[in-house]
Amino acid sequence: MTALLPTRVSLYDFLFEDTLPIDAIFADIGNVSIPQARVLIQNGIQAIISGLMAYNQQHGGEAVLKKLLSRSQIKELRKYNAFNLETMSAAHLNGNAINDTLFGSTEIQKLICQKLAEQTQLTSSQVRPLFGALSLICLREIAILADYAQLDAQEVDCWFGLQPQFFELNRIEINKLDERGNANNKLLAGELPNFDTNWHQITGYKQPAISSSNPAEQIPHYAKVIGRTHQTPLAHNLSTDNNQLIVDNANNSDVLTFGNMPNISLPYQRWLLQLAKISDIYLSRKRLKVSPEPVQPPSRPFVNFGFLDTSNNKENQNVSSSLDSEQGSIPFWRNPVLILLVLVIGGLSLMAVGKYQYKKSKAIDTPVEIKKMKA
């Protein structure tokens, strides 16, 4: 049984919670105070997301994956499996190159740095390298999340298409509800500020119009339940008080649910479930907590989809069978298994022949003593 908040697929919520542990080392590398570092991070994340949305709007999801999330600077930063002074120094050194690609023009970068400088009471020259480092760190985290969820270009476009509804969430009202004791609606373990949509005026992102509500017949099934069991759950286990959890004790199956949220218009899709679950696992690991480099890198999160409906399983079987048939059409000289088998057999044969020749040569070189028999 697992509960997932809809904000687990929100870039803003993900990056805000993910970067909570880096305030001290971020302040240290930039020689600023920790409160200034926190203000710069939480406002810089908004500018980065707005710039990323504008980039996707202009170039598409394929360009985001190939030209942005696969850049050499991000690949270099992904070699580190922990967050420490060495990681922060690498981000601080290569951040400006990422900003040149993300925002497209130096004029946009100047306007962003000026606004951040006013909010943090710093100079633009102090803000610029720190903002570049933050951009590199954020894009690296998004690249890891997209890679773990195995998103393609179309799925990235759909994922980014979900983001405008998260920009309009009133976080202050949610925090007020939490202070009254309603902890079930809490989005994060910290006070998340409202997203400043004025960043769109600087970055050039054109936010689409979003209707305030959807008719009941247009709300898809996964808006309430994103995972479901094969059997019908018991009536008394359908939901809890906050309509977020569904339990099936009879079937002993995991069920992932989304809390109620308007303006979700995508159909039920497997990749969104995987993205939300992996985001939840990734945040629980606290990968940006300051620590030494681990001896063994963390493994890719595993998401079990055994509880999905049979129709999806049949589709997956058809896909796997088609992949197997495609693999069967590969010529045998390109099959890595056969090549390895031939190499092993050939090597063993050569060793056997060599051993035989060696023993034969030893037998020839050894003199044989002939003793004469006495009559």
Describe the protein's architecture and organization.
The chain crosses the membrane at residues 332-353. The longest helix has 30 residues, at 336-365. By secondary structure, the protein is mainly alpha-helical. The chain has helices at residues 11-18, 23-30, 34-59, 61-68, 72-77, 85-103, 106-120, 124-149, 153-167, 171-179, 199-203, 270-285, 310-328, 336-365; strands at residues 2-4, 256-258. The chain folds into 2 domains: 2-207 and 214-308, no CATH class; 315-354, no CATH class. A two-stranded parallel sheet has the order 1-2. It is elongated and about 95 Å long.
What would the average pLDDT be, to the nearest integer? 76
Strand order of the largest sheet: 1-2
Task: Round the Cα radius of gyration to an integer and report it.
Answer: 29 Å
Number of strands: 2
Low-confidence stretches: 181-189, 214-254, 264-268, 307-317
Please give the count of helices. Answer: 14
| Structural class designation | mainly alpha
Order of helices and strands: EHHHHHHHHHHHEHHH
Largest sheet: 2 strands, parallel
Helix content: 55-70%
Q: How many domains, as an integer?
A: 2
Strand content: under 5%
Distance between the termini: 99 Å
Gross morphology: elongated
Summarize this structure as a short list of keywords or feature phrases:
membrane; 14 helices; transmembrane helix; 2 domains; two-stranded parallel ribbon; transmembrane; 375 residues
